[in-house]
Design goal:
Elements: E1 4-6, H1 16-27, E2 30-32, H2 34-42, H3 51-62, H4 68-84, E3 89-91, H5 98-102, H6 110-118, E4 123-129, H7 132-140, E5 143-145, E6 151-152, E7 168-169, H8 176-199, E8 203-208, H9 213-224
Helix pairs in contact: 1-9, 4-6, 7-8
Length: 226
């Protein structure tokens, strides 16, 4: 049976994308990077002329989470396509709000979509625990490849991505002031998900996200029995 692993309940800079990418490279998961998916749409040609995309673009560029209903529809559509092929899926940014996770009486949330597709026992949430100080430091110094978007370690001392040779760049979202907004959004809008997931007996793994990524990855594999 396939698995779904979501890192979305972790703070900015905790290593969500890195750990999802490691599952993809080492265990054959599909890494669904919600942020990359949204950014591509929100900064695509013509997005400025679409009032909905323009609204979401403003949210995105200032560190505010995108409108939950818009995000839910976008991710659910992509999820349904992956589910049809029975992939193991690792999410690095979904779901991020209560509504995206649980929906309401009129809207099906992602947790119901996950559970129906793979069974509750195969839906896992991983919370990578890092302090706000670590989050700010990591994000402020984060460099990614301008072509493939893969992270480039701060101590790599390189002028090109080791994977594709692209030039390193710093994301708009990693401005220190925007990071503070993102952390506030995380505390107020993402963390409440955790308690409800626990009440509904979903599998939640809490792991120290401070060690080197490969060490965190090994602990995740151990906890998930992969």
């Amino acid at each position: 049976m396939s698995h779904i692993v979501s890192f979305s309940i972790s703070a900015p800079g905790a290593g969500k994308g890195t750990q999802a990418e490691l599952l993809a490279k080492r265990k054959g998961f599909i890494h669904f990077d919600t942020g990359r998916h949204m950014e591509r749409i929100l900064h695509s040609p013509g997005a400025e002329n679409d009032p909905i995309l323009k609204r979401e673009q403003i949210h995105w560029d200032t560190g505010i989470l995108t409108t939950p209903a818009w995000a839910l529809q976008l991710v659910r559509e992509a999820t349904n396509k992956m589910v049809q092929d029975g992939y193991d899926i690792a999410y690095s940014g979904s779901p991020r709000t209560y509504f995206e996770t649980f929906g309401n009486e009129k809207t099906v949330g992602l947790i119901a979509t996950f559970t129906e597709a793979y069974g509750k026992e195969n839906v896992h949430f991983v919370r990578l625990d890092v302090s706000e100080e670590v989050s700010i430091e990591r994000n402020s110094n984060r460099v990614v490849c301008s072509i493939c978007s893969l992270p480039i370690l701060a101590n790599a001392n390189t002028t090109a991505c080791a994977f594709c040779g692209g030039k390193p760049e710093t994301r708009i979202l990693d401005d220190p002031e925007i990071i503070k907004v993102r952390l506030k959004e995380y505390r107020e809008r993402t963390l409440p998900i955790v308690e409800q997931l626990k009440k509904e007996s979903y599998h939640i793994i809490e792991i120290d996200g401070a060690p080197a990524p490969y060490k965190v990855h090994e602990e995740i594999l151990k906890q998930l029995n992969l």
